[in-house]
Fold this protein.
Amino acid sequence: QLQLVESGGGLVQPGGSLRLSCAASGGTLDHYAIGWFRQAPGKEREGVSCISSSGDSTNYADSVKGRFTISRDNAKNTAYLQMNSLTPEDTAVYYCAAEQLDLCVIGYYHVMDYWGEGTPVTVSS
């Protein structure tokens, strides 16, 4: 079974940057679309970004477009989320997920096949 582990979360100041990683084991990511989701305290899970299996297609939620960049390195079996210009509203636990259908549609958490445990991101001064 595919296992995903997020890393790179932590405490950053407003306006700062953070790069999250999603490392896979137990299989390869090269046939999966990868989605990033987040869940803030007291709020529902929110789709953030996705990238197709080949990396040819990416999509972003309106709330992060222009600030976040999703990427992947299939040779390293890892996906990334570069987050810039962070605000307190970005505070959440961030999850990566893999999806065999390769749809890359924002917010389609119900079609994701594998999930990581999440990495917390706190944006605060």
Remarks:
- The chain is about 0% helix and 45% strand.
- The two ends are 40 Å apart (CA to CA).
- The longest strand covers residues 18-25.
- The chain has a mean pLDDT of 96.
